[in-house]
Amino acid sequence: MRGKNPNMWHPLCSIGLSLSLSVAHAVAETIYLKDGKRVEAKITQRTEKAVVVDWFGTPVTYWRDDIERIDESTAAQEPRIIDAPPAPPTPSAAAPETSEVGQPQDAERVAFVDHVLALSHISKETFERIIATQKPQLDQFINQQTSKLSSPVSREKFRQTMQEALNADLLYTAMRNAFLQQFDRQKLEAVQTWLSSPLAQHMYQLGQEAFQNREALRQFREQLPQHPLSPTRIVLIQRLARAMGSMLADTLQQGRLSMASEAGIAPDQAPAFPTITMNLGGHTTAVDLQKITENPQAAEAYAWLGLVFMYRSVPDEELEQYVIFQESEAWQWYLKLTKEAFAYAMGQGMKHLMAISKSVVDEIVEEEMKSRKKASDSSQPNDTSHTESQDGQNTP
Asked: What is the value of pTM for the model shown?
């Protein structure tokens, strides 16, 4: 693939891959942090702003603004973090434990983010399902690119390379890194507490059961006119539908803009979202994603029936608790960060796959040209236009 092709955007619209860190020479040292802790591990990379250590095979970043000093005279046998007497308060140490892009990603934070994401049912398996659903679009893209290659062996090589690039581990890592870049312990702990609560788990289970009960939904829809909702229930469902519809619209739009940027095309030139089939509250229906992107009220309308059906057995008091948390500052922050992480993964996926595609195609094309030239050279006859006579004179 040569250049940036707008037609690549659509087939890969839900794929995101992260870029790995390069590893430099490893040195065993002790890092003293401003919060009073010290880290004993091997440094694998150094920059002006940060150092990266090997934490049992995982690269962990510590930024120099958070480092008091680095001692090269001691070496750890195995990576470990040791508590030390608190350092005197400094503006950096006293700041809230939040971070902009590129803040420290120590092992404890990684484990904590993994735990919260797992409570949200976001895991490696989530991205395996995304990859599976995008297989037809990926195959379409691969077929478009392999048409540029003349050799069946080259086409198969390109196909295998692109399929191997879709790695669920890398997709999940990109999502997790986006959370680590904007880490806020207080808000994440609030989200963790809610997601661990019996009510939150009950609401999730109701949603899962609703997706598997189409007959019950059909009966519910038929009986709803005879059993109108109470004014309180209507208000609660409206608030939920509004929040969910807005979240879906914002997520799609942010992902669209991110991928258009990575593809090197203007947002208004990016292909429109297609109409897809979705399972809403157990009811399969066609959803116009483009309409949702342009009008959040359309998403709200799609969500309405599913929410009424899913939570039909939940008392108003419990549903109100659910709505209140959905509207809380911590949850709204979490939803916003989830949208940003999704968009980041999509953008990184586009960037990564475009780079791989171009690199592999260019490499294969070069190999084919060399192969053809070699075959052409070997097929040409030796130059016998002149022969040498016995007396050493050239004769025609």
From this structure: 0.54
